[in-house]
Amino acid sequence: MQLFALLLDTSLKSVLIVLLAYFLTLVLRNHSAAARHAVWAAAVLVITVLPVCSLLLPYWNDTIAQPAVSIAAGSSQVISRLSQGAGITVQASTRNHPISPAAIGIFLWLIGSMSFGAVISVGFVRLRIAMRRATPIDDAEYKSVLSEVAALLQVKTPVRLLRSSEIAMPLTWGIVYPDILLPTASDKWTRARTRIVLGHELAHVSRHDWMIQVVAELLRVLHWFNPLVWLACRNLRFEAESACDDAVLNLGTEGTDYAAELLDVARIAQNRNRVWLPALPMARHSNLERRFIAMLNPIQDRRRLTARQLLLTALAGIAVLLPVAALPFPARVALVPGQILGTVYDANGIKVPNATVIVHNAATGNRDMTVTNTTGDFLFSSVEAGQYSVEVLSTDFAGLKIKEVSVEPNQTVPLNTMVIRQADSTALPVADTESPRVRMGGNALSSLLVQQVKPIYPPAAKAARIQGVVVLAAVIGRDGTLQTLRVVDPDANPDLAKAAVEAVSKWRYKPSAVDGVPAEVLTNITVNFAFSK
């Protein structure tokens, strides 16, 4: 499945990105928290856009990228090369058993993503409700401190001050129109504490931390199974808080005073019911100790990043993104859908239309059928890696069974052009000569039908108002699956014949028996394509 391939591909590549970011932050451990936050922000943003880039960018390996280019150029060009002797092209695919490991993986991923997404959605709703119920702070002293600190931090965006009884500690919300939400106890704060808190929250606004944090939360929803993504998001949040601490200290606040005020805010919040919200609370208990160590370190680098440094960080992120996105990881390569296509000729080199082509994977039991078009060409999309046999059936020719070929992931395997020899008109396709056979039809066969797939009217035939009947000679295996299908009328419309074969090949019957021995059934199946009156 393409989605499962993309999920595995992104997960593996995100490991490289997180490890690289972790290494860079170790190198920058003596630099400012703003520098380390920029690294983690770049890593989070790169992982976020990685799936799109992986789909759009070609792989490094040209031999892997070539099949996709050939398909995009048009199947007619590919078939033209095949008719000149290239044979049948085979490539890897995602098809597997009806309930494949990939399908189970996608199901589990969806369950986890929906669960974590529901938690975050509830948090956003709670935060939104808290904002609506909050009361604006019109205190002149608060507005004075807000204006003073905003000017020092060069925050030009209008910011609202709100007070709510539904939160335990200060937090910031909003991207375009940011709000600072303060707890009820803030009406008794000193001017010094108010200046510290507003300085910290306005630093978040100045740095656009809330926007980056929202991206990180959404990334965790999609990569809930990946512990390294959680590590990246946790470090991103910690460095954001540390960078805001540095901004407050750069305003002239002493480290000891700031630590004391922060500790008191955290102590008061600890006594309140803790409700998770998708915001940036000022005093998260899990990282206070590390923040205290940093803010009390007199030689700690507390510089902000300049515009030039931010630009270089963005360029570095792009420089990492492009080559990593183009890496052909095995998990991705092995699951990229492939195809089998080719042309059927007779012994005289004449193309054979309406020939039934069967590909069979003995290991998985997968069997697919299609019909050649008017120029003898056929196409199977989504063929998984493995050992395959190819068989051709036609009214005027006997089947030629191609020897088993090994299909490797994402590789093109050339075969000799298929030639089927002329045969006795009484020849019948044989799936297993050791099995007893019985010919059956009518109501007796209909009573055994347990799964019927309705043919889809081909768009080209429908647009041309083409109607007709397709009669298929069928061999139903001992397990009730269609082993072979052959178009009886060589003059049947190829589009109708192809639609009939592809639908009927998915039919399932109850197994039949002769004297208690499982038997194959020979029958004719008629598919009628007609416009309803």
Q: Which architecture of the largest domain would the CATH scheme give at its second level? A: 2-Layer Sandwich
CATH class of the largest domain: Alpha Beta
Number of strands: 18
Query: Outline, from the CA principal axes?
Result: elongated
Summed over residues and divided by their number, the pLDDT gives a mean of 77
Sheet of most strands: 5 strands, mixed
Task: Give the radius of gyration.
Answer: 34 Å
Question: What distance separates the N and C termini?
Answer: 40 Å
Low-confidence runs (pLDDT<50, min 5 residues)? 61-98, 423-433
Quick recap:
By secondary structure, the chain is α+β, with helices and mostly antiparallel strands. It contains 16 helices and 18 strands. The strands form 5 sheets. Strands 12, 14, 15, 17 and 18 form a 5-stranded mixed sheet that branches. Strands 1-2-4-3 form a 4-stranded mixed sheet, with helices on both faces. The protein has a 4-stranded antiparallel sheet with strand order 7-6-9-10.
